[in-house]
Amino acid sequence: MTRKVLASAALIAVTALTATGCTGAAAPKGETATAAADPGSVSGTITVLTHRTDLVQNGTMKKYAAAFNKIYPDVTVKFEGITDYEGEVKIRMNTENYGDVLMIPNTIAKKDYPSFFASLGSSTELSEKYRFTGNTTVDGKVYGLATVGNANGFVYNKAVWKKAGITDWPTSPQEFLTDLKAIKAKTGAVPYYTNFKDQWPLTAGTASIGSVSCDAEANDKLATSTAPWAEGSDLNVIDSLLYDVVHDKLTEKDPTTTNWENSKGLIARGEIATMQLGSWAITQMQDAAETAGTNPDDIGFLPFPAQKDGKFCAITSSDYQQAVSLHSEHKPAARAWIDWFTEKSGFARNEGSIPTAKSGALPDTLKPFEDNGVTLLEQSQAKSAQVNAIDNAAEIGLAKPDYRQKLVDMARGVQSGSLKDYFAELDEKWSEAEKTTGS
Amino acid sequence: MTHTAHTPTTRVAKESTAPRTAPRKTAKSPRPRRGVLRRATPWLFLLVPLALLITFTYVPVANMIYYSFTDWDGVSPEIHVVGTDNYTELFTRPELFRVFLVSFYYLAASVVQIVIALYFATVLSFNLRLRNLFKGILFFPYLINGVAIGFVFLYFFQDGGTLDSVLSWFGAGTDHAWLGDPTSANVSLAGVSVWRFTGLNFVLFLGAIQSIPGELYEAAELDGATRWHQFRYLIVPSIRPVISLSVILAVSGSLSVFEIPYIMTGGATGTTTFVIQTVKLAFQFNKTGLASAAAVVLLLIILLITWIQRRLVPDEKVDLV
Fold first, then answer.
1. What does UniProt give as the signal peptide span (chain A) (predicted)?
2. Are residue B256 and residue B119 in the same domain, yes or no?
């Protein structure tokens, strides 16, 4: 008996020791994926990991690859669409096999970028040409280029808002609430849809940090803030608005069984008036309107209802960034794909999003923003590493749905607690974590 | 050539001259070989399952135990051993254990589940028309993938979904949001888990009941025992080991509920279980070390409860005769 126990203990100890070797895959840090001068000299087969399974399935990505091959005939591009992108790629990154080009998963800490990705060049050089390079800059080097950028605000059905007699954009949270009440009273539509069940749509509020204070560095300031939810702060205003909307029963009847795919059709048919989302959603809703046989032009985009000095501010932030794997055997080909995709593919235009290249024009979907003088601010990510570290240590999850789900539950009255106490609790967790992470 | 020709005779001669020693010798010399082979045979058969067991169970568990002593974030190449810090943190944060209260819903549900399964197993063990059809119907839910069940029941509970429309046919239509508040949501989810696992308990009970020899029923009937008496004094005592196994499975199952609430509510509205919380620690907040410690603690809790249960209700040998 004792011999058996000893043997199995030894076995466990040995496996534990050998297992430690698995995680620390040593790789040549600091390699650069340089762009080749002559397209004809680039060759090889590259695999692109992408979260856009829809574009892989309907053949759109193949068309991009075909266009790419006109310039780079010797490169074969393969796509791997992954549904649970974050979860799956994070685990695959423990090996050396995570494609040649991939979208940087959100869970990867910024300081680890150099051990997973090849650098694309210096930030001084690239930031002149491209937007959103700050997101992936570590020690002056850029590790990923954004596929596209998005403005943050609310997608709304213009026809429904008009039917309720509202023509101007609400300029304050109070006005936003009044407008939603008018929609509830005068139309049959659900004024606001939370998409509570699908969780991620609730994180849209976090992307708007900065739109209240009209400050591109608002997100960076969280790194040194001891009370991010203090009265009048961005998070306070954004989350209070969500609370009030739910509390005043201006949302769908049962948030726990919402359905994202359905919601597209609902807003297209005018059964939902408003949803908080990024500008990337506009084209999807317009497609839904076409399918439903309603007018795609009815789908519009609102800035966050807050003004500074009489002007709206909308925060733009980067979508997934493409990076070259440090273990790629065809780095020039991978780099060529990223450069081409960012600059020449026309992806941003097709998606109705903000192009990463600074030379690119704003999409039609954001034309109303330009016309109405909305200030577009690029969210600074200089301190995002510290902010994320505090966020994780505090287990709040600014970009995760849980804390807003609890907020919605409290607003609906199914979980006890007042908003003020909840904000105080969040503030305390945040400042506590800030001390321990030592930033 | 000559040698070969001679051998038969020499062998015969040997056998005839030494009839006593020869068989002994032949028996003795192959014995060690056959003995080694005989001893090795079970291991050879076990080789594949053992390899699989070690690769897919013990190595991951050993890894998890190792991670629980580190501050690993799940992906970073940097990994520091921090000793028992994770365990200290775990036990100094009582709110991490509050989620076990949710398990009581599932524990209560498993009582219901065992009773239902026992009832149907008993009824269907007697001769009944369409017996096999009913067996199939009862076992069927267990065969469906948990994720699929989650989606099916999401439509079932949704506002104006299957449950609401069925209720309204009977004039009992309510406006109740089934997953809307913590109590209702947990009861609904526990109900789904009863629906899913009753089949498994049912099959376990049925198998045990069918192994009771038929003469015993006959004898009982001759003695004038009713169906209830047969159940109480014949069936229950003979399937006691299976019942106690079911209880152990029920307790450990209720402590580690995951699939159904994770798919249906994602742990929102007070439906977070310990495992969901652990998954969120590991994959949302990148605290793989802390999450591994939580998983180890859950394992220890389940082992402890099982041990206590075996102490309280020892597994007696069933002897009906």
1. 1-25
2. yes
Domain count, chain B: 2
> Which residues, in sequence order, are CB contacts of A328 under 8 Å at separation 6+?
A33, A46, A99, A100, A101, A118, A334
Give the pLDDT band of residue B315 (cuts 50, 70, 90).
low
Could you tell me the residue ranges of all domains in chain A?
A: 34-148+319-369, 150-317+383-437
> Which of chain A's residues have a Cβ under 8 Å away from the Cβ of B177?
253-254, 256-257
Indicate whether B279 and B230 sit together in one domain: yes
What is the C-alpha to C-alpha distance for residues A320 and A147, in angstroms, rounded to an integer? 6
Domain that holds residue B103: 90-312
Same domain, B159 and B264: yes
Residue B318 within a domain: no
- Which chain A residues touch B if contact means CB-CB below 8 Å? 11-12, 15-16, 19-20, 22-27, 87, 90, 93-94, 107-109, 112, 115, 196-197, 199, 253-257, 259, 392-393, 395, 397, 400-402, 405-406, 409, 412, 414-415
Q: What is the CATH number of domain A34-148+319-369?
A: 3.40.190.10
CA distance A366 to chain B (A): 32
Q: Are strands A272-278 and A190-192 parallel, antiparallel or unpaired?
A: parallel
The structure's pTM equals: 0.81
Whether B80 is in a domain gets the answer no
Write the pLDDT tens digit of every residue in A318-328. Answer: 999 999 999 99
Cβ within 8 Å, pair B280-A402: yes
Do β-strands A149-157 and A311-318 pair in parallel, antiparallel, or remain unpaired?
A: antiparallel
Co-location of B59 and B173 in the same domain: no
Residue of chain B with shortest Cα separation from A405: B268
- Cα(A117)–Cα(A126) distance, integer angstroms: 16
Give Cβ neighbours of residue B216 (< 8 Å, ≥ 6 apart): B234, B320
Phi then psi dihedrals of residue B90, to 5 deg: -60, -45
Question: B137 and B227: one domain?
Answer: yes
CB atoms within 10 A of CB B309: 15
Residues B148, B283, single domain; the answer is yes
Contact A20 B79 (CB under 8 A): yes
Which residues of chain B are at the A interface, by a Cβ-Cβ cutoff of 8 Å?
54, 58-59, 61-63, 65-66, 72-79, 154, 157-159, 161, 177, 179-182, 185, 265-270, 280-281, 283-287
Q: Quick check: ipTM above 0.85? A: no
B132-171: per-residue pLDDT in tens?
899 999 999 999 988 899 989 988 988 888 888 888 888 8
Q: Which residue of A has its CA nearest to B269?
A: A409
As a whole number of angstroms, the distance between CA A334 and CA A114 comes to 17
Domain A150-317+383-437 has CATH 1.10.150.20: no
In a domain, B74, yes or no: no
Residue of chain B nearest A388, judged by CA positions: B285
